[in-house]
Write a structure and sequence with these properties.
Radius of gyration: 32 Å
Oligomer: single chain
Strand content: 15-25%
CATH topology of the largest domain: Transferase(Phosphotransferase), domain 1
Helix content: 25-40%
Amino acid sequence: MSVRYPAAVASDPSQGDDLGRTATAPISSTGRPEPAEALGASLGRYRLERELGSGGMGVVHAAFDPDLERRIALKVLRVAAPGLEAKDRLLREARAMARLAHPNVVTVHEVGTANGRDYVAMELIQGETLADWLRAETRRPVEIVAAFVAAGRGLAAAHAAGIVHRDFKPHNVLRSRDGRIVVTDFGLAREAQAALPALRDLGELASSRAQAAMTLPVGTPSSLTGITATGSLLGTPAYMAPEQWDHGAVTPATDQYAFCVALWEALAGERPYRGPTLDELRSQAALGPAALDDSRIPRRLRAILRRGLDPDPAQRWPNMDALLARIVRVERRPGVALAIAGGALVGAVVLVVAMRAGDELVGPRCEPPVLDAAQVWPPGHADAGQTVAARQLDTEIAAWRTARAVACQVAPVVRAPQLVCLDGVLARIDAVARAVRVNRGTQVDAGALLIDPRVCELPRAPRLMMNTSPELREVMAAWLARTAAPAPVLTAAADALVARAEPDPCASSLAHLLAADTEKTLAERSRHLDEAQQEAERCGDDRVLAETAISTAQHMMGNEWLSAAVTAKLRLADAAARRVAQRDLIAQVDLMRVEVARRVDNLEEAIARGGAAIDGFAARGRLRPELTAGLAVLALRQIRANRDDLAAIPGQLAAWRTRAVRELGASDEIVRAIDARAAEWAFAQGDVAAARATLDRLARALPNTPPQRVSGVVVDRRGNPVAGATVTAGRSLRGDSVGAAGGFTDRDTIRSATTGADGRFEIPDAIEDAIVIAELADRRSPPVAAGEDLRLALAPTSRLEGRVDLAGRPAANVAIMVKDLAWPARSRYALLAPVAADGSFAVDGVPRGELRVLAAIDGVGDMVTGGATARVRGPVVRGVALSLVKPTRVVHVLVRNTVNTRLANVEVVILPGRVASSNALEMTRRFRSGSIRLARQLDGEHAPKDIVAAAKPGDLFATMTGVPDDASACALGLPEFSDAQLERRFYAHLDRIQVICAALPDGVNLITIEVPPIPRLD
């Protein structure tokens, strides 16, 4: 039996063979069409080549990406696209698609804004729509079903990522020239809903044949493809489920319904429900499939499709996977089976896949694999000492066996590259398995190095080397050892590893990446990263190239604020990760994009990217990075401070901790990270004692390299030695109402000692450049720089109470900072206190004297502060009043060097009133309130247009939002802080660092400040 697809079905509007229409969602628009020339010859870095088609929300162009040297489809949203909210939701949906890597889903490369226009960059597919393919010639049912199963896999993958299509139909499915089936336009039609008027009565749309004829193709009353979105009707009516007609909840079951309509149509030559008007079509769909004529549907598929067409979503198949599994099962008639490899239609009929253990590895069409899978990692090889890694390896080897079973049954032209790829996957499993055995007894994350066998099903599978070298095994063992413990790999050991790995370029590349993590200087890190890139290219393994690109981008982001170079490296990392198409690799890039979005003040984008990272790691069963990404998103949600966000924090932390302890153990690093985050939350809620108790419990003594000896004596106000006092040394000490010294950061490097009867103490292994402070009961000493023979004098402390005018900001994101003006200006020590919801605060343990009290909010954007001076004489001081800066305008500050050389870093400060230029030491002394942020480089994507127009090469800029009416902008140059010694020299010479200030006249929103070079700090 063969089926001829109805020629009357409306054709897709795009022209030619280039399917740039992948981005065209079938929605109506009131926006006026825009000529291609309105955009010019380029958009951002993309060169526009020609227009491919247009839709209600945008115009699709074929374009060229010069950075990655590839042609893409670029959908540019219309300026007049209806509804700002609709556009924002459309972009969020496209970003969600960008994190979905599946061979049966169109790849979204990037979502961004350039020249004031929002765009979505996607892969450009050469081929035709599934509707065109069906219409081109008579197709056999087995071919049709195979194509739809592939499309269904794409829908299932989207549903797993939380995305509902809402407008599935053959016109939104592409078939490439090599047979790959790709579903397009996910979620884009959905975004039209908010932009169109809500017409509850569908009779208002088209209740008569005459009204329907206005939009239906002439002579095809059953083809309603031309009516896609009118009023609040969302989708193509002929494929719409009853819940869409009734404005009900749209779920994955809605896509399942449309899928069954489309498959029925393809097999029978007509749709199951037909009618000349929308009302009649709606009525038929509501009646259900009981009365349908299914005589033209293959008998084995009738009941399956009828269930999918049930008007009640609860009565349909549980999900797309269940529906597809049933279709594939009935299609496996005696002697035949469907084979869909990575979404490509690789043959209509093939031999049944043998799924018995062992039979899947060798068959009539397959040679044995290069390695014996049973020897690489026998099934169920887990032992109690390595539960996580063993579970990961068990999962991977099972997935590999399944993938090879399928590959052995497909057409030879597809089978050969898949088997080569799978040999490379097995070789990596072998290297990782051996490394896991070396690290026996530790909770290593083997998933960080494993390769998903499913990537070999891609039409263009990644190139993976069949590498079993001892050098690679040794490097893998070193990588896994690093994931199991917080102690860093020593530089000497890393250099030795690099030398031993040299014979194997793949191992050498990874060894250089490991060595880059151990280096303290930027120059040495850069050298190792360059070597890693060169070795990765010699290796030729796409996974190694991706690991190298991702690590390089991560290092650059850690050393540069945000530059064109960082942006370019991030794009390369994204492309390399998507070349491998493995979810957790793409998730690593998403995590970096979280930081990019945060740095450019795009909180919603940062949260969305973080969610993508969570999903990507979860899909690969990598709990540690999944929870790490979760903690990052939780911090962003606290900054956003929605009521629901804040209320959910304690429960989320508790749930994560329970899961982490169950799967990884109570001593795992991610459990410690969750506990530390819980301590921060407890502090923000005012429970300082609970926060301090948790932090003290988490503290441990990691090696301080190099150590510094600290010694001295603790005395009282009369100079008498004090026994039993606690002396603490640390680089990032913070005091609070409970104690003089603790640490939310660097707590593992803090060291303490107790004074003897003579008042003396010794700390032999304090961290270099530490701060030292002593305490006993309610008495504390001033903080001093670390050294030997110190004299720490205890003095009575007081309680400070006051209130902050929060200016509408959430109290959970505000902290009080107290510093004694008698302390050295270079002192990095301070006392911290939380702020209650009503703005009140209280802090015990403050020194007596003249104090600087600051309220600071450090979220996305400026760090805004409000300050006051308090004179403390007695035990309690009340009535301290603080007010956060109430921003009244935004000012862009452009900073350049007076000698036209590159600026490493610049800090921009907005201060109230007219402020004269000075040096950093003096500015530190007199700073009370204002806003602060680091300037960044212009990367061409995130800088405002007026900044780009005024900037010169090498300039940095900062967008300041906390700007009062009468204010000054100040800038001071900072060195690269990648070198700890350079950082110490900088703080030791603050009096030599010039701060240049300029008044901000009313109405001015752009100012340029020239700063002198940083002097030599020898």
